[in-house]
């Protein structure tokens, strides 16, 4: 397991927060907090909780960004996200197991400026690593 990995959410690509939230409300979901704009990732995010694991709806902010391939194919599931105790150690472990760093650690608006990083696992699953504590 990556350096104390603790599941946090599943990220879903969406074209409309309202439409996707309305559909997920059928499964018992409700909005957890206010929407957040992340200018580094060029997305807006909305977290939902309820009928299953926490869901992060991810919406493009209108500028070219990381969601384009998913939007083009119509894919919904974007990534799985995990808190890690130490970002550097988690990235080392992921690389040793054949993962590729897609986004080097950057501060994330949705997590109060804590660092996040995205890695593509050998099975083509995109994983977001979130630094558990402020460093």
What does this molecule look like?
This protein has 3 helices and 9 strands; from the N terminus they run E-H-E-E-E-E-H-E-H-E-E-E. The protein is of the alpha+beta class and 135 residues long. It has a single domain (6-131), classed as 2,3-Dihydroxybiphenyl 1,2-Dioxygenase, domain 1 (Roll). Strands 1, 2, 3, 4, 5, 6, 7, 8 and 9 form a 9-stranded mixed beta sheet that branches. Strand 3 and strand 4 (43-49) form a beta hairpin. It is globular and about 40 Å long.
Number of domains: 1
> What's the total helix number?
3
Return the CATH class: Alpha Beta
| Number of extended strands | 9
Show unreliable segments. none
Instruction: Please provide the ordered H/E string of secondary-structure elements.
Output: EHEEEEHEHEEE
From the spread of the alpha carbons, the general shape counts as globular
Topology:
Layout: E1 6-14, H1 17-25, E2 30-31, E3 36-38, E4 43-49, E5 55-60, H2 68-73, E6 77-84, H3 87-96, E7 100-107, E8 115-120, E9 126-131
Q: What are the main properties of this structure?
A:
9-stranded mixed beta sheet; single chain; 3 helices; 9 strands; alpha+beta; 19% helix; 2,3-Dihydroxybiphenyl 1,2-Dioxygenase, domain 1; globular; 135 residues
Question: Quick gist of this model?
Answer:
It contains 3 helices and 9 strands; from the N terminus they run βαββββαβαβββ. With 135 residues, it is of the alpha+beta class.
């Amino acid at each position: 397991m990556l350096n104390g990995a603790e599941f946090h959410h599943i990220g879903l690509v969406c074209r409309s927060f309202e439409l996707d939230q309305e559909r997920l409300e059928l499964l018992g979901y409700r909005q957890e907090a206010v929407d957040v704009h992340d200018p580094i990732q060029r997305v807006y995010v909305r977290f939902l909780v309820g009928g299953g694991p926490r869901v992060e709806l991810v919406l493009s902010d209108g500028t070219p960004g990381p969601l384009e391939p998913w939007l083009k194919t119509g894919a919904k599931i974007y990534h799985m996200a995990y808190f890690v105790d130490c970002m550097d150690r988690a990235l080392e472990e992921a690389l040793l197991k054949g993962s590729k760093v897609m986004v080097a650690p950057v501060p994330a608006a949705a997590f109060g400026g804590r660092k996040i990083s995205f890695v593509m696992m050998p099975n083509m699953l995109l994983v977001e690593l979130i630094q558990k504590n402020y460093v």
